[in-house]
From TrEMBL:
Residues 104-342 form the NAD-dependent epimerase/dehydratase domain. One of its GO terms (molecular function) is UDP-glucuronate 4-epimerase activity. Its EC number is 5.1.3.6. The keyword Metal-binding does not apply. This is UDP-glucuronate 4-epimerase. It comes from Dendrobium catenatum. GO terms for cellular component: Golgi cisterna membrane. It is a multi-pass membrane protein. Keywords: Isomerase, Membrane, NAD, Transmembrane, Transmembrane helix. It holds the Pfam family Epimerase. It catalyses: UDP-alpha-D-glucuronate = UDP-alpha-D-galacturonate.
Length: 453
């Protein structure tokens, strides 16, 4: 009888082979996992690069920049050139849609006057690119609202600072702007007591930075129209104020920086052949205006039942201002742009071919109105009686009156203001109650009429 087969060796061999198969599968699985991981990583990197190429990062983080540190711009964190996509956006926004249209770089484009001018330029078919640093001198949310409005009209705003000369150099290299409307500035008289250095940075250093880049980096050099101020007339007692009047006695640091700006403009015109036009604005007001202006914070205080402060001169006279409605000022700005001649300098700051245009104009309403009358008009429109605190005007830079002679602007580009204070304030109140969601009390027929406008 045959002995039974020895199965122990067979079982061991099968267990060993099974172990080898499991080990091989584990190694294969591990290798496959590593390969899959590497493939996924490479695919992710590829997608990120693709995303960056087609959708570049914005110029800067859209949070309000610190007003005490205004020198933040894209070039502090971005490579020293614009991406192809951003360059395309600049060209698209800057290219005019009408024949012989202007291509305008508007600084301070998210500001009050800058927004209105940008919209008017775009509406008539000009190309517009805006630049603004969105500082916190007043609530940046209003500037963001203006930016959103401009975006709806396909106007690009770059968030950056004019003191970044490298940025300006690349900006002028990205598109041959025919004109610059320079409205960026540190405004206000009393704020100088809190932050005097901001006036030097914004109104003097930034102006030099812009002129330098326009003279040496732009090809061709653009014609520049820029915002001076009626404040340069300072303590002048002659009325009305004319462009030929002396401006040697500024009453505030703000006025002094604007006076300095006019002297700097003369220098760059003389040396580099830049075509330069200074516009002296007289108390501009209207919808989307500046919250630091009297008509704006008077409206806010009156509606809140808070007292307002009204100044009178030391001899008991009313303070008066030549209030100028925004639409009239916009017409003046566009008229100055349309009549600006070409610069005569050579790209790179070389010798000029001849004298270049250098002009100064008043843009006012020619009708000074006492501040007490402004308050009376607001009371009627709002249907609320103001609580008034009348005090003597402090010696902190304010002047007792302003009054513009605009005959020079009228003759050179047809500037004729047409909006009186009552009509202009009516339009402002209509915007104000809509923007802030306020319903006026129907206790006054005038207030109800204002709501319907």
């Amino acid at each position: 009888m045959a002995s039974p087969a020895d199965t122990s060796k067979t079982n061991k061999l099968e267990r060993y082979n099974s172990y080898l198969r499991r080990l091989s599968s584990a190694k294969l699985l591990s290798a496959s996992s590593k390969l899959l991981f590497r493939a996924t990583l490479l695919a992710t990197i590829f997608l990120i690069l693709l995303l960056i190429l087609h959708y570049p990062l914005p110029l800067s983080i859209h949070s309000p920049s610190s007003f005490s540190s205004p020198h933040r711009s894209l070039l502090t964190s971005f490579p020293p050139s614009f991406s192809p996509s951003l360059s395309r956006q600049i060209r698209l926004s800057a290219t005019p849609r009408r024949s012989s249209g202007l291509s305008v770089l508007v600084t301070g484009a998210a500001g009050f006057i800058g927004t209105h001018c940008s919209l008017s330029l775009k509406k008539r078919g000009d190309g517009v690119v805006g630049l603004d640093n969105f500082n916190s001198y007043y609530d940046p949310s209003l500037k963001r609202a203006r930016q959103a409005l401009l975006a709806r009209h396909s106007i690009l705003i770059l968030e950056a600072d004019l003191n970044d000369s490298l940025l300006l150099s690349h900006l002028f290299s990205s598109y041959p702007f025919s004109h610059v409307l320079h409205l960026a500035a540190q405004a206000g008289v009393r704020y100088a007591a809190k932050n005097p250095h901001s006036y030097i940075s914004s109104n003097v250093a930034a102006l030099v930075s812009l002129f330098e880049s326009a003279a040496k980096s732009a090809d061709p050099q653009p014609a520049i129209v820029w915002a001076s101020s009626s404040s340069v007339y300072g303590l002048n007692k002659k009325s009305p104020f004319s462009e030929s009047d002396p401006t040697d006695n500024p009453a505030s640091l703000y006025a002094a920086t604007k006076k300095a700006g006019e002297a700097i403009a003369h220098t760059y015109n003389h040396i580099y052949g830049l075509s330069l036009t200074a516009l002296r604005f007289f108390t501009v007001y209207g919808p989307m205006g500046r919250p630091d202006m009297a008509y704006f914070f008077f409206t806010k205080s009156i509606l809140a039942g808070k007292p307002i402060t009204i100044f009178r001169t030391a001899d008991g006279k009313d303070v008066a201002r030549d209030f100028t409605y925004i639409d009239d000022v916009v017409k003046g700005c566009l008229g100055a742009l349309d009549t600006a001649e070409k610069s005569t300098g050579s790209p790179g700051g070389g010798p000029k071919s001849g004298p270049a245009q250098l002009r100064t104009y008043n843009l006012g309403n020619t009708s000074p109105v006492p501040v007490t009358k402004l308050v009376s008009i607001l009371e009627g429109l709002l249907g609320v009686k103001a609580k008034k605190n009348v005090v003597t005007m402090p010696t902190n830079g304010d002047v007792p009156f302003t009054h513009a002679n605009v005959s020079l602007a009228a003759g050179d580009f047809g500037y004729h203001p047409t909006t009186d204070l009552a009509a202009g304030l009516r339009k402002f109140v209509r915007w104000y109650v809509h923007y802030y969601g306020i319903k006026l009390k129907p206790s006054s027929g005038q207030a109800v009429a204002a709501q319907r406008l």
